[in-house]
Amino acid sequence: MKKIELHVHLDGSVRPSTVAELLGISDDEAKKNMIVSYDNKNLEEYLTKFDLPLKVMQTKSNLRRIAKELALDLVEDGVIYAEVRFAPFFHTKQGLSLNEVVSSVLEGIKEVKKIKINLILCMMRGASYEDNLKTILVAKEFLNNGVVGLDLAGDEHKYKTSSYKDLFLIAKKEKIPFTIHAGEADGAKSVMDAISFGAKRIGHGIRILDSDLAINEVIKNGITLEVCPTSNVDTKVVSSYENHPVKKMYDKKIKITINTDDRTVSNVTLSSEYKKLKTHFNFTRNDLLKMNLNAVDASFMSVEEKKKYIKILKDEKILFKKGKDL
Ligand SMILES: [Zn+2]
């Protein structure tokens, strides 16, 4: 099945074998430090799984390689359009400029022709105002030239969404689209704050189910939620896959999309996620298609490109109905 993915982090989706090779350690050692364990306690601990990949993502050639490998992995997973995100200033520890970081990642993904990938640049909770502002400026520099939007990621519980209002006012003024991680480690109020800044998309957002007001706000404003079920289990936002509210959200007609978040950290692909959704919640192929159409609609690509991808997805549906082997 052809897929669209809007929420996947570059640094959470690095091949362990690549990190092992670049650091001269064993694959097992890399995996141990990059893939979350079952006894993982919370989002803070989950975030430590990014330390090792970030060590090697500090040179142009490594960034190019890692970006290209993710593009190849996405193709392998049946993804035809993706928005890949990362925080550029995490990759400046060995002297790269933000411009060089973004350019290197773009060069890597452009080497893979079978998929279209646009970038979303993440501001970070807990980072300085200046660093986040620089991220906005570099996004502006590359806007519609490989970069399509901004995000706010990191520890939502510790650093409240409301503290980042000024930065999003600037993003809005600069006409840079954005999505915000909200309603994951923190509650519905965080999502309401993100919507009040002008976010049309929310990363996760599952905690809106605690508040009818927030649910209404999301539906009324046509907000799309980038739901990442396995990641939510791994960060203990939900107690188990069976208890994930993804089906409840879908049944309430909330616009949702399905995403991996961090392919390596959560040891997941979109194909494996779709399989779990079918097994645990009886989602049909049509449901999944609908969520892919939601993803195209909510993506930050151009109107012309949206039309192209909607046609590709609908053509596949016709073939499927005719019983063609896909
Ligand atoms: Zn995320």
Q: Could you please say which CATH topology applies here?
A: TIM Barrel
Domain count, please report it: 1
Using only CA atoms, what is the Rg? Answer: 18 Å
Backbone structural class: alpha/beta
What are the low-pLDDT stretches, counting only 5+ consecutive residues below 50? Answer: none
According to CATH, what is the class? Alpha Beta
Helix amount:
40-55%
CATH architecture: Alpha-Beta Barrel
**Number of DSSP strands?**
8
Could you tell me how far the N terminus lies from the C terminus, measured between alpha carbons in angstroms?
Answer: 7 Å
Mean pLDDT reading? 94
Tell me about the largest β-sheet.
4 strands, parallel
Q: What portion of the residues fall into strands of 2 or more residues?
A: 5-15%
Series of secondary-structure elements, N-terminal to C-terminal: EHHHHHEHEHEHEHEHEHHEHHH
CATH homologous superfamily heading: Metal-dependent hydrolases
Bound molecules: zinc ion
**What is the overall shape?**
globular
Strand order of the largest sheet: 1-2-3-4
Count of runs of 4 or more consecutive helical residues: 15
Describe the 3D structure.
By secondary structure, the protein is α/β, with parallel strands linked by helices. It is built from 15 helices and eight strands. The protein is globular and about 50 Å long. The mean pLDDT is 94. The site of zinc ion has 6 residues, from strand 1.
